[in-house]
Write a structure and sequence with these properties.
Layout lengths: L1 H38 L1 E2 L20 E3 L6 E5 L6 E3 L12 E3 L4 E4 L13 E3 L4 E5 L11 E3 L4 E3 L14 E3 L8 E2 L12 E3 L5 E3 L13 E3 L4 E5 L12 E3 L4 E4 L13 E3 L4 E5 L12 E3 L4 E4 L13 E3 L4 E5 L12 E3 L4 E5 L12 E3 L4 E5 L12 E3 L4 E5 L2 H4 L6 E3 L4 E4 L13 E3 L4 E5 L12 E3 L4 E4 L13 E3 L4 E5 L12 E3 L4 E4 L13 E3 L4 E2 L5 H4 L6 E3 L6 E3 L2 H7 L9 E3 L2 H7 L12 H43 L1
Parallel strand pairs: 3-5, 4-6, 5-7, 6-8, 7-9, 8-10, 9-11, 11-13, 12-14, 13-15, 14-16, 15-17, 16-18, 17-19, 18-20, 19-21, 20-22, 21-23, 22-24, 23-25, 24-26, 25-27, 26-28, 27-29, 28-30, 29-31, 30-32, 31-33, 32-34, 33-35, 34-36, 35-37, 36-38, 37-39, 38-40, 39-41, 40-42, 41-43, 44-45
Antiparallel strand pairs: 1-4, 2-3
């Protein structure tokens, strides 16, 4: 034992002596290499200020060294806003084990000289602006982690990565490669547990050799053009917890054996051409947190087991052909954050436990065949941001607590059969940007509390039975761009305060029982493109000054009781049809001819041109008449003279 201890101490002493002899020269080389590396970078955060001429680089920010030799073994400068190019001088660091430079703004080419760093185990330059063809780094046989993803590399896909058999994590996706295929010998990477080949312009099928990598835990081949049937061999990968195959061209059905991958936490196979029923066993994947299959052609029902899941957070099946009743307990036991089951054929009662955990932020179930009432339990969704259940067969009144959700940004109950009133609690939904209740059976007055929603940009209440006056409080909504109140039973005059909603792009108040004049304040709505006030009982003279500043692409004032002259600019905006049904409206004769208008000509409202023409004609007539009378008078005098002479001769 003592002899072994002596040998070990002797070894340490030798190492120290060796280090003492070699370190000064090697350290100076490494300092110079690092300073050269710094020289080609811009450092707005001054994280490299400690990189100065010194005897040792071990005190440099982001640099780590071997405690015995003092040589540089690691550089870690993650997310430091560095820009510039990676200097080839980095290859002078012969003991470098890790080079970690992600999430910066580095540009230029990746130096091929990195091949000289034969001890390198981790190379991460992801999320930068690097360009050009990736150099062949096959000589880095010790590499375990390679991340070149999310850059602007081009050229052929780096198939040489299959030579790096020690790799545990491989990420080269999200670049601008030429179109290519996954290398057939990808199965050489027997130790691989993580692979990221997303957005790499890959086509063809996934090689069978890939499914022999039994250490695989996470795969991402998304956003490519991978084709063929959904790979049944994927069920060999028993350690798999993430499958990302979305945005490809896969076909076929999900193999029932997929449910044998009991460690699965995330499945995203959306936007493919997959079809068939969902295997019942998927409902037994108790670790599942994310399940996305949207935009495929799946049919049948959701497996009942999804209602018993404890970990489900994200669930999206929109744009499929799924049908039947939804699992009764769905969301009851899981920390659900987002559900989108839109545009399917689900029927029966609306699931009532979606907000049980109180964590739901997105509830999208539009375009189905749900019936019955909307559950009051959804009032628990205090963090809900989007609520869209439009285009169903739902009925009854909306629970008052739903109206006042404090974080909700979009509420869309359109195209159902809801009844009742909008609760005054709507005034507490101060994050609301869009309220859509179109085509229901809502009634009562429009609550003035809507004026408290400073962020409201779109208000669609059309196609209901709202009554009473339009609240003047709507005039304080400075973000309002769309206002649709048509096809209700609204009465009274149009509030002048609406002219303060200067962001309005479209306003439709048609088919109500509104009266009074068109407010002069409408001249302030300079962003307005579409105005429809038709089918009301509006009166008063059509004052062109009220609308002269507007640049409307659509105008409809028809079927009212307006009077006055339709000006040229208004007629140009709306055409004849915009003014039909207003018996008191007319156009000047010259405008009727010029615009080929079918509107009647104004009577008793001669234009200046007509008056001038009348004056000229009258003047000419008078001149002619006077001349005629003068001529007659002269002729008469001559005749009298001749008679006088004749009488003289007779005498």
């Amino acid at each position: 034992m003592a002899k072994q201890l002596f040998s070990f101490l002797h070894f340490l002493i030798c190492c120290c002596i060796f280090s003492a002899l070699l370190s000064p020269s090697l350290s100076s080389v490494e300092v110079e290499a690092l300073l050269q590396f710094k020289k080609q970078l811009k450092d707005p955060l001054h994280c490299l200020d400690s990189w100065k001429v010194s005897d040792s680089p071990c005190e440099f920010f982001g640099v780590s060294c071997n405690p015995i030799t003092g040589l540089v073994t690691g550089i870690s400068l993650d997310n430091q806003s560095l820009s510039g190019e990676i200097s080839p001088s980095i290859s002078e660091l012969q003991s470098l084990v890790s080079l970690v430079l992600p999430s910066n703004m580095l540009s230029g080419y990746l130096p091929a000289e990195l091949n000289k760093c034969s001890n390198l185990r981790e190379l991460n330059v992801s999320t930068n602006y690097l360009i050009g063809t990736i150099p062949d780094l096959s000589e880095l046989r010790n590499l375990q982690i390679l991340d070149l993803s999310i850059n602007y590399f081009s050229g052929p896909f780096p198939s040489w990565v299959t030579n790096l058999t020690g790799l545990v994590s491989l990420a080269v996706g999200d670049n601008h490669y030429d179109e290519g295929e996954i290398p057939d010998n990808i199965g050489n990477l027997k130790n691989l547990s993580f692979i990221f080949f997303a957005s790499s312009r890959l086509r063809g099928e996934i090689p069978e050799s890939f499914f022999e990598i039994t250490t695989m835990e996470s795969l991402d081949f998304s956003n490519n053009s991978i084709s063929g049937n959904f790979p049944k061999s994927i069920t060999k990968l028993q350690k798999l917890f993430t499958i990302e195959l979305f945005d490809n061209q896969l076909t076929g059905e999900i193999p029932p054996e997929l449910s044998n991958l009991t460690l699965l936490q995330e499945i995203d196979i959306s936007r493919n051409h997959l079809y068939g029923n969902l295997p019942e066993g998927l409902g037994q994947l108790k670790n599942l947190e994310v399940f996305h299959i949207f935009e495929n052609n799946f049919s049948g029902e959701i497996p009942a087991g999804f209602g018993d899941m404890r970990n489900l957070v994200l669930f999206s099946t929109y744009r499929n052909n799924l049908s039947g009743e939804f699992p009764a307990n769905f969301g009851r036991f899981s920390p659900l954050n987002s559900i989108d089951i839109s545009e399917n054929q689900f029927s029966g009662g609306f699931p009532k436990y979606l907000c049980e955990s109180g964590k739901l932020q997105f509830l999208l179930a539009l375009g189905n065949q749900f019936t019955g009432e909307f559950p009051g339990s959804c009032s628990k969704c205090r963090d809900l941001q989007r609520l869209r259940i439009n285009d169903n067969l739902l009925s009854g009144e909306i629970p008052s607590g739903i109206w006042g959700l404090p974080k909700v940004e979009i509420i869309d109950f359109g195209n159902n059969e809801f009844t009742g009133r909008i609760s005054p609690e709507i005034g507490t939904a101060t994050s609301l940007t869009q309220l859509d209740l179109v085509n229901n059976k809502f009634s009562g007055k429009i609550p003035p509390e809507l004026g408290k929603l400073a962020n409201l940009g779109k208000l669609y209440l059309n196609g209901n039975d709202f009554s009473g006056k339009i609240p003047s409080e709507l005039g304080v909504l400075q973000q309002l761009s769309s206002l649709h109140l048509e096809e209700n039973s609204l009465t009274g005059s149009i509030p002048a305060e609406l002219g303060k909603c200067t962001m309005l792009v479209e306003m439709n108040l048609a088919r109500n029982s509104l009266n009074g004049n068109i407010p002069e304040s409408f001249s302030l709505l300079t962003n307005l493109h579409s105005l429809n006030l038709s089918w009301n009982t509006l009166t008063g003279s059509l004052n062109p000054d009220n609308l002269k500043n507007l640049k409307l692409s659509s105008l409809d004032l028809s079927m009212n009781q307006l009077t006055g002259i339709v000006s040229w600019n208004l007629l140009q905006m709306g055409g004849d049809k915009a003014f039909l049904g207003n018996k008191g409206l007319c156009v000047e004769k010259s405008l009727k001819i010029q615009m080929h208008s079918g509107l009647k000509v104004c009577r008793g409202n001669n234009t200046k041109e007509e008056l001038l023409l009348f004056f000229i004609i009258a003047s000419v007539f008078v001149v002619i008449l006077v001349g005629f009378l003068v001529a007659i008078c002269r002729e008469s005098k001559k005749e009298q003279g001749r008679v006088f002479c004749d009488k003289s001769l007779e005498i």
